[in-house]
Amino acid sequence: MLWLALGLALVFAILYIRERSRNRETRNHLRYIQSKLDEIAARPASSVERVQVMTELNELRGLLRAINDLLDRARQSAYDYAMTEQAMRRMLSNVSHDLKTPLTVVLGYAEMLNRSPNLEPEERRRLLGQIYRKTQEVLALMNAFFDLAKLEANDSEMEMAVLDIGELARHRILAYYDLLASEGYEVDIDIREEPLQVYANEEALRRILDNLLSNAVRYGAIGKYLGLSIKRQDGQIVIEVADRGPGIPPREQKRIFERLYTLEDSRNKNVQGSGLGLTITKRLIERIGGSIAVQSVPDVRTSFTVSLRAAESPAAAKAGSKK
Prior knowledge:
Helix content is 57%, strand content 15%. It has eight helices and seven strands. By secondary structure, the protein is α+β, with helices and mostly antiparallel strands. The chain has three domains: 1-32; 80-153, Helix Hairpins, CATH 1.10.287; 161-315, Heat Shock Protein 90, CATH 3.30.565.10. A five-stranded mixed beta sheet has the order 2-4-5-7-6, covered by helices on one side. It has a two-stranded antiparallel sheet with strand order 1-3.
């Protein structure tokens, strides 16, 4: 019995010493973690440091995982904020330039009219016409900014309905018929005869098609080609608008949908738009539950592909519900 009592006492002594040692180890680890976090907090938000501790304690390991996850999220948030701030500065610079250019022209023509009261009627009409066109450019740009602001604020409701995108696209391409014929474009249209129905907002769809078609006509003028195809594929309605213009270099393709981003190096400066058209197009597509992608081989083929979820017609849906 004595040996048993001594053995038990030895076991309890070992457990007590081990527990005290573990508590001491835990306290040391916690002090280190606190010190390390203080160091990280004092450094720039871009710091990639993590808190690393070698321990067998599961609770402490869980705490370290949570801390490092928070550090990663904070680092990502800081990066996103920096990128947003940089994009805003670039956008404001572009806005200033895009507004300044036509307004400078307007002021120049207005000054000519003011200083030359005896201008010939024909010359006066020409200058007034230039002032009118440039003023319309400024108005169109301001309207585009307003539309983009509304889309990004997501403060307007879109009435959704089942629409035949094929029929809508045929009507939109007809609006470009005279221009395409007079400029000698090769027009390649592939729209299936079957109903190609999507659940979307009609005004948004019209604007999406118009933006993509006008973009292809404007930037594809060199290639004199416009392609439009719509088909059903894997439960999606896929719309493709293509041109054979200068195209978009691979390094630019990820940025093409950014606000006010224009391809100054790769596209003709005489036909550059405001840089808002594709941004608005992407936002509209996202609002109706779709996606857009671009593929481009410069001077060969550039295509924008829109994917929208296919919808059943009301009659088909009603018939299906009765079965």
